[in-house]
Amino acid sequence: MLRVAVPNKGILSDSAVSMLKEAGYATRRDSAELHLVDQENQIEFFYLRPRDIATYVGSGSLDVGLTGLDLLHDSQSRAVEVADLGFGGSTFRFAAPEGSSFRELSDLAGKRLATAYPNLISDYLASHGVSVEIVKLDGAVESAVRLGVADAVADVVSTGNTLRKAGLAIFGPVILKSTARLIAAPGKTELASKLLRRLQGVIVAREYVIFDYDCPVDLIERASQVTPGIESPTISPLADKNWVAVRALVKAEQTNQVMDQLYELGARAILVSAIHAARI
Ligand SMILES: Nc1ncnc2c1ncn2[C@@H]1O[C@H](COP(=O)(O)OP(=O)(O)OP(=O)(O)O)[C@@H](O)[C@H]1O
Ligand SMILES: O=P(O)(O)OC[C@H]1O[C@H](OP(=O)(O)OP(=O)(O)O)[C@H](O)[C@@H]1O
Ligand SMILES: [Mg+2]
User: Fold this and answer.
1) Which ligand does the CA of 137 lie closest to?
2) pTM of the predicted model, to two decimals?
3) E strand segments, the chain
4) 263 and 251 within one domain
5) Are residues 71 and 183 in the same domain?
6) Is the complex ipTM more than 0.90?
7) Where is the Histidine biosynthesis HisG C-terminal domain (predicted)?
8) Which one of 72, 90, 181, 182 would you pick to mutate in the ligand 1 pocket, going by the greatest count of ligand atoms within 8 A of its CB?
9) Has residue 198 been placed in a domain?
10) How many whole angstroms from 216 Cα to the centroid of ligand 2?
């Protein structure tokens, strides 16, 4: 049975669980449940702290897991990245009090830097040749400067609201762009392939829509450039020999732009539908 680590709390948990549910797997009924066996799919789910997932998977005690790229890096585990799951997007940034003299990376030299991701930060600073004193905290890192234990912080930023409220401003380069990843134990990526196919199906169903439209035969080439699909658009004959029917997947966010382009080109009867499930 495949043994899978799933975030039990935090911002990644809900998205991870709903993705697994959409992919047809059993999910827990109550948040106190830490272990669940999905007999039908021959999978065992272990609900663990997001920060610990890479450690379990890296040691091989669990086969695969869902966690953030930043947490994977910070764990220094041997787990390998299998796929980007597209949710839980964030950036990892440096910040210091608004109006302070911190402008660039080198301004951190010799200063105290608070973070809950000490390994991620040490590796980054070492590779950029900057030496700082790292103050390891567990969370709510934004308060560290105000409370006098650090001169600057390095933390997860999403909207930036938490930083702003703490009177901090971002400076320096983007340390890391992170999203949730499917990770596997070393040498076990093959074991993840069926789960991966299902999760990729969910990603495609969320990211793409189906375009169906009629197109004059002499415009097929140009229309195919507008809707190339993932591999290639399906083109079917119509009763009227001068027209064909075209079907292709299009990124959902481009829906209206692509409809405009097709209409202006001469396509008609343009219909767009959602994808319920997919296996690419
Ligand atoms: N707005 C956000 N705030 C915090 N983490 C986010 C955000 N968006 C995405 N993430 C990602 O979520 C993961 C961190 O999850 P979480 O905050 O649940 O863990 P944690 O900070 O270790 O736990 P906790 O906050 O419960 O102490 C990281 O991969 C991070 O990049
Ligand atoms: O840019 P924002 O949208 O404000 O989000 C980023 C904040 O959210 C996270 O905190 P979390 O709630 O996980 O608490 P923590 O700091 O204790 O981990 C993160 O550590 C930042 O503090
Ligand atoms: Mg957190």
Assistant:
1) 2
2) 0.90
3) 2-7, 35-38, 43-48, 64-68, 80-84, 90-97, 112-115, 133-136, 152-157, 168-178, 180-184, 208-216, 234-237, 243-251, 268-274
4) yes
5) yes
6) yes
7) 205-276
8) 90
9) no
10) 53
